[in-house]
Queue: 2 jobs
Job 1
Amino acid sequence: MHEELRAALAGLLDGLPPKQAAQAVDRLIANYRGRTPTDAPVLRDRADVAAYAAYRMPATFEAVRAALTAFAARIPEWSPATHVDIGGGTGAATWATAATWEGHHSTVLDWAQPALDLGRELAEGILPDDTRWQRRTIGEGLTVPPGTDLVTVSYVLGELRPEDRHAVVAAAATAQAVVLIEPGTPDGYLRIREARTQLIDAGLRIVAPCPHSDSCPIVPGEDWCHFAARVSRSSLHRQVKGGSLPYEDEKFSYVAATAFDATPAPARIVRKPQLRKGQVLLDLCTAHEALQRTTVTKRHGAHYREARDASWGDDWS
């Protein structure tokens, strides 16, 4: 799915000078995040949307796919039949959902018609033909169709006023499963933390990344919970983003919750494992001892080998 998305984006930008795309991206970055009222999206036309899709879709796709993969690992017998992507824009989270599960019907809701139009164009012939792209105000008054199995909300909450943010999470909480993703910054984590509390108050169970539905043990202002997804860059993507490396690491925060019984991991690795001679240091969030560091040595045999192969964000038992 990643290669199909890359090819679709390359076709979209074919003939658009990278310098022109980079200039559009610079302008959008300066004005987009956090200051967009729900009745006036910054993505005004096709040129804006094309430049922003080239800049953001690969990273958003990988972050959402990582969150959905961690979630799916905890509910191996479940898959959604219906999916709603709130604020989905050009559909990165819908692509990620299609890369995680098959056989579902997706609906993308967004306030920007140019983003929806381009998302439909990108998805043609790749995502299911019955994927729907609907213009909707993302905020107060938003509803999700009754019986929806999965709702995703990715990189949207930070664009909303507090009252609209609360309304979006409330609407999402009516689904059987909810996955919310925000940038892996202190502010992004705080928005996820706030939404996590709202989901719990609505009666949902936290499945990932947290190993419990109790209060988050992190002290705001001292640390924040986030993870990283590796994003490979095409040559065009490097030109648009002004980078030279063939990859980047997208930092993200997320929470996944369900209305049905699901068992979270006993613990989750919340920092990059530190490899030492004969030992591995793991920073864990656990169900019973909150945040802790554990040392796995060669004496632990198979567990040591597992620790050496473990990655930031993985379950740990």
Note: Residues 17 and 54 are 12 Å apart (CA to CA).
Job 2
Amino acid sequence: MSAETAGQTTAGPAPAGFRTFLALWASQSVSVFGTALTFFALTIWITQVRFPSPEQQPQLAASLAALGVAFALPAVFLAPFAGAWTDRYDRKRIMILTDIANAGVTLTILFLLVEGFLDVWNLIPLIALTSFIAVFHQLAFDASYVMIVPKEQLPRANGMMQTMWALSTILSPAGAAAIIALSGTAMVFVVDAVTFVGAAVVLLFLRIPSPKRADLARGAAGRAKSLLSDVKEGALYILDRRPLLWLLATFIVANFAVAPLGVIQPMLVKYGLAADWTTRGFSYEGALALLATSAGIGGVAGGFVVSAWGGLKRKRVYGVVVPLILAGVTQIVYGLSGVIFLTAGMALVMSAMVPVMNAHSQTIWQLQTPPELQGRVFSVRRLIAQCTWPLGTAVAGWAAGVVDPGVFMAILGGVLAVFCALQLANPYLLRIEDRDWLEDLARARGTVREARAGAAAGRDAGSDG
């Protein structure tokens, strides 16, 4: 069913257009940087303070995995309901409230740290709460800038968004280390809370329209459309367009292959690369920061390239699949390298592929999905694409405690490269940007579904008779 037949209306980009996006992007970039400071500081605390000795490798792996899963589960499995919610209510207000809520969670972690009560067991629910809040914020944000950015500027805006995430990775290790050295770990959380409040204040002065949905009015039976029906609508939009499912399949594999990095990288530095970085005069914090900073530089470089270039204007699917193949091959070298500088170089290349791939994928979805459906569709898209993220993190928590972490990452990189290479011969995926063909597929599946529903209703009527 099209958006028009569903009784929904679509708003075009706001008059301020790209200028409004720039203000939104800048304020949220500062907030993302603050959050990156917090997560880097927590990683250092867990690896160096809570589980410092080599004999604690299994406990360290399990704790990192538990925190990773605690963040991943709400982000993935609550996404469809968060997306349906953002399609119903004012997206600007959602972003303001979630920024303030995240500031509150950050201050709670600060209190536990200062009072000496912080431990993995109470950090896990706080990380899960952070993820719960963040999923509402991110989906409201993702569905908002298509409302203010002209279509021809979307690839550039998506590239800037990817650059924002990568730049935070560059700045956060050095920033967190400097803040900890000058003012202590507690100050990191103060800075993070301030950035959340600042982002909320900037939003107060921006005009960010939300689509108007006539289909939410009460029907003849007096019942309003349910949140679950919104989730179903988002799911059917994707299921009726098989090429979109194939695009998501590449991300299912990619997320399973890359998710373990959050668990593996601190352990790879602590154990697998220790012989090399100690001879070069690095500390653990310095070696970990080198990998994180290298990854950030790669992400910024990739984001800058796609922002300046604007991405592919046609056959954008190649802008997704080819970078994923390169990322997989690079991950093999990353895992097998025993040299800190080679590993850092591979981290740079891997991260450079991410903004290129994400910008092209996001543009495909934005152009193929009506704005008033994007919250619902994007959230279901997120559930499908990231369903392997918690699984990959949990598996890494087991594997990193019993096998070589680098070999484990290399195997996953090989799986990713081979799977994505095979997609270059997938005729469904390669036609994903043919909008008319996609809609023909959707109409055909809708007709089949209605016929099956009619046949089922007829059987029920016969049995009642």
Note: DSSP finds 19 helices and no strands in the chain.
